[in-house]
Amino acid sequence: MASAMTDVKLFACSQSTELARKIASNYGIPLGNVITSTYSDGEFQPSFEESIRGSRVFIVGSTHPGSDHLMEMLLMLDAAKRASARHITAVMPYFGWARQDRKDKPRVPIAAKLIAKMLETAGATRIITMDLHADQIQGFFERPVDHLFASTVFLPHLRALNLDNLTIASPDMGGSKRAYAYSKALESDVVICYKQREKANVISHMELIGDVTGKNVVLVDDMVDTAGTLTKAADVMMERGAISVRAICTHPVLSGDAYERIQNSKLEELIVTDSIPLRQNCEKIKVVSCADLFADVMKSVHENTSISSKFLM
C-alpha cells in the first residue's frame, strides 16, 4: 500500500504549537522541526529543517486573528509543496474568517471562499477542520474536507456532569440544528434564544423560545468571541427560572472584554476545546482537549480507513 511506504511528518504553525505537540504525542510520532526567521519589518519565513520529500505532511495551525496566523499556514503549505511533499494536509482546528461565508449586504467579500482558494493554491491537498461556523463552507473547496464535530469530546464531558433536568439551549436561531443534535444525543429538552443585533457583536434584544424553569441549562455554540451573546442568554435564562446555566463552545476566540465578561457573568462555567490557546486564565473556563480526536482522524486519513465514527452529529 502507498500509505505504508509514505512517511508521516507533523509540523506546527507557531500559534498552535502546544496543540500540535499533544496531537503528535497521541499519534505516536515526534513533532517536526520548523524554524521561523523574522525580518525587522515583521516579515517572516518558515523553514522545514528536515526532508519531507515524498512524505505525507500534516501542518497544524488555527487561523484565528490576526492575519499572520493565516499567512503562516499559507507559507508553510507553499514550502511543503516546493519541497516535494506527496500529500499536504492543512489541519485547521479553527477555520478563521468563516463568519464571512456569504454576502449579507452589497459590496462585501466572501472571505471564507477566498481563503479556501488561497489554501488550495498554496498547496493543501486536504483540509481537516472542526465545527465550521457554517457547514456549507466545505463546498468552497475543490479538495477533500474532513469536517469534525467537537461533540465527540463534549458529550462524554456533559454526561459525566450527571445534571438533572438537563436542557440544551442554542444562543441563536442559526445554532438550532447543533442544539437539537445535542439534545437528541442526551435525550433532553431544547430551547432557542432569538436575538436581534444593532451591529456585529452588539445585541439589541433577546427572547427565549421554550421553558427553562427548574432546569440545568447548557448553551451550545461553535465559537465564543466577545461572550456578549452567551452572558446575555445566561441572564435571560436565570431570570426565567433556570437552576444553572453552563456553556460549551468549541472555539475560544475570546476577544475584547470576553474574559472579564465571563468571570462576572451568571454562567456556572464555560467549556471549550484547545483549538485556540487561551490568552489568560479564568476560573470559569474549562478546557477539554481535541488532540486525541485529530490524532485519530489523521491516522485514519494516512491509513485510508473510515472516519465516520467521528461524526456524532
From TrEMBL:
Tell me which EC number(s) this protein carries.
2.7.6.1
The top EC class, named as a word, is: transferase
Superkingdom of this protein's organism? Bacteria
Q: Name one Pfam family in it.
A: Pribosyl_synth
Residue stretches spanning the membrane:
none
Instruction: Cite the entry's keywords alphabetically.
Output: ATP-binding, Kinase, Metal-binding, Nucleotide-binding, Transferase
Ribose-phosphate pyrophosphokinase N-terminal domain residues are: 8-123
PANTHER family reported in the protein's UniProt record: RIBOSE-PHOSPHATE DIPHOSPHOKINASE FAMILY MEMBER (PTHR10210), RIBOSE-PHOSPHATE PYROPHOSPHOKINASE 1, CHLOROPLASTIC (PTHR10210:SF41)
Q: Specify the protein name.
A: ribose-phosphate diphosphokinase
- Source species of the chain: Mesonia aestuariivivens
